[in-house]
Amino acid sequence: MSIEIKSEKEIAVMRQAGRIVAEVLRILTDHLKPGMKTKELDIIAIRELKRLGAESSFKGYRDYPATVCVSVNDEIVHGIPGDRVMKNGDIVALDFGAIYKGFQGDAAVTVPVGEASPEAMRLIEATRGSLESGIAAARAGAKLGDVCAAIQNYAESRGYSVVREYTGHGIGRKMHEDPQIPNSTEPPYGLKPGTGPLLKKGMTLALEPMLNVGDWHTRVADDRWTVLTADGSLSAHFEHTIAINNAEPEVLTREVYV
Ligand code: MF3
Ligand code: CO
């Protein structure tokens, strides 16, 4: 396994790709409302990508048929946009990737449709916090397992389980590069703190915890893409593309307010 180190120039392009991803996710969440079909979000994403001069990371990737993943309630990730109507109180994970000048950005957010229950909002905030705690641990000199432990500990300290079979990943010219980034420390998927590859300035990583109200087991729907919680409990997903620095990592897909 070899983890590529990006130059400042390459990271500058990834910053642009990341901003496009953040902007499109912002537009999608702004449009989201009860009564909308999930495929309407895909149409908006296609339009905005074109406007911004970028291409989809997802469409055609292993034959994935859409530009955005829309995962509702007990769907964890990889929901295919379609005729499902989103209703008030649902929570929706929007996962989106863009290619700009040869480099990829990848990010996800989970948001309520209309107004969701306090329990659902608490899950969303814990998932956001789990990602932020992973980001904070992703410093040059740390081991990848320190990031995995930070993500899992934050999730479990709030009473949630963290999905184990799906992971974050290195990212660059390809959406999925080395290393795999587990969201837990448990074998066979996880990495214990103090173990795994050493993080170095110039590594670009996509961290993406998925938290469940119930246990961490998953199943895949008949469409062979949509991943759901095995027990039918609610799930949330957040993702950012980051660049490792000597101090705090830079979040390349963070929204820039101007
Ligand atoms: N963020 C997800 C990932 O990194 C999205 C991939 S969806 C796919 O794996 F359709 F492109 F596979
Ligand atoms: Co990803």
The CATH architecture would be Alpha-Beta Complex
In terms of DSSP E residues, the strand content is 15-25%
Mean pLDDT: 97
Percentage of residues in helical conformation: 25-40%
Please identify the top-level CATH class: Alpha Beta
Structural class: alpha+beta
Tell me the CATH superfamily: Creatinase/methionine aminopeptidase superfamily
The number of helices is: 4
Q: Which molecules are bound besides the chains?
A: 2-amino-4-trifluoromethylsulfanyl-butyric acid, cobalt (II) ion
The 3D shape can be described as: globular
Low-confidence stretches: none
For the termini, the CA-CA separation is 40 Å
Write structural notes for this entry.
The strands form 4 sheets. A 5-stranded antiparallel beta sheet has the order 8-7-9-14-15. Strands 1, 2, 4 and 5 form a 4-stranded antiparallel beta sheet that branches. It has a 3-stranded antiparallel beta sheet with strand order 3-12-11, with no helix packed on it. It is an alpha+beta fold. Helix 1 crosses helix 2. A hairpin with a 6-residue loop joins strand 11 and strand 12. 2-amino-4-trifluoromethylsulfanyl-butyric acid (MF3) binds next to strand 5.
